[in-house]
Fold this sequence. Notes:
Elements: E1 2-6, H1 14-25, E2 31-35, H2 41-54, H3 59-77, H4 84-101, H5 108-116, H6 118-133, E3 138-141, E4 148-149, H7 160-170, E5 182-186, E6 189-192, E7 197-199, H8 205-215, E8 220-225, E9 246-248, H9 249-257, H10 268-273, E10 278-282, E11 291-294, E12 305-319, H11 325-340, E13 344-349, E14 353-359, H12 364-373, E15 376-390, H13 394-401, E16 408-411, E17 415-419
Parallel strand pairs: 1-2, 1-8, 2-5, 3-5, 4-6, 8-10, 9-11
Antiparallel strand pairs: 6-7, 10-11, 12-14, 12-15, 13-14, 15-17, 16-17
Amino acid sequence: MKVFKFGGASVKNAEAVKNVGKVIQLFNDDLVVVISAMDKTTNALEKVVESYMKKDGECFKWLDEVKNFHYKIIDELFNDKTHQIYEDIHNAFVEIEWELEEEPLRSYDYVYDQIVSVGEIVSTKIVSAYLNLTGLPAQWIDVRNVIQTDNTHRDAKVDWELTEKLAKKEFELNASSSVKTVFLTQGFIGSSSENFTTTLGREGSDFSAGILAYCLNAESVTIWKDVPGMLNADPKLFSETKMLSNISYHEAVELAYYGATVIHPKTIKPLQNKNIPLYVKSFLNPQQEGTVIDNNTTHDSSIPSFIVKRNQVLISIESKDYSFIIENNLSQIFGIFSKMGVKINLMQNSAISFSVVVDFDVQKTPLLIQELTKDYKVRYNENLSLITVRHYTKEAIDSVVQNQKILLEQKSRKMIRMVV
Length: 420
Ligand code: ASP
Ligand code: MG
């Protein structure tokens, strides 16, 4: 069995959905196909949540935009206007409307998961109904019956043992059947033990593919993208990019962790643990080789890779009483970051000061700074970029820094990281 993952861009409109069907048709293997929400639906549903929680009276308006977007796609895919899909999608959106009619009493993160997850539900319903229409029988699976998590909404932790057991049951192949089986399911979402929907963090569908591949001992995972494979830099930011045709799990996880957006960093661990190769390929050019990620490290250092993380905040935390930051304060500082769920992208210390770089977040960043200010002298700069160059050369560094001011720099044998 192979696992395929199609992201939002691969199902961004009716044409794209048709193309997904064509890609799947090219394979004779049993497949588990993981699909994200269509195009920018997750962002659009985030707006619904924000507006509902703020009670600004606009949430139904935002939801209508999401609904219209999906109905337009269905209208293009299905000639029969009495097709069951119309009712299925209607029912999925009604779930959100029920939520929106209540007073917003539950936590932001809980509400977020209940509403935003519907993007994945409708997307997979549409694609699966369309595949069935074209004569490709696809079994729609509600992944919330498989991926079990704790109740950390928006960043749920997977219960691997239980998930593995349920996956084997839910994605059971009919051994006697000679025709290929295609299971179609959602990325990004899971279920807590209280049976509420949870999400695995933004862009988490890749991770879902990794989880399912691990649990089902899949032969491989293929992430289908609108780029030919993993490149050494983001083509939106760099005019010259190179394809990485084979990199190791280690290299991939480092690149992904520091912000290469092609794959979600959590995807690699389950695959590495079972030595399952990961392919990154273009859904526009499915016959092309793409990138292979496996345990072969021979090609890792041949090309410098550039990763730019935007919207960074550099926070300097200084002890007020001149006590040494590492000896006396670090565990408390880490405690604050952990409590607020803020991940540190880079850190550096001197005797009495500790500097960290984190992603800017409208909600979390001001709260974090407020909390730190209680016990420390805090200074911060917003609107920065964190540039990482792996396997750097002098020319590579010069080409990326140009005239920008470097506020902080860290260098090791394999990589250089600069806050500019
Ligand atoms: N739809 C979710 C997101 O946009 C998950 C994913 O696409 O991987 O974050
Ligand atoms: Mg996406």
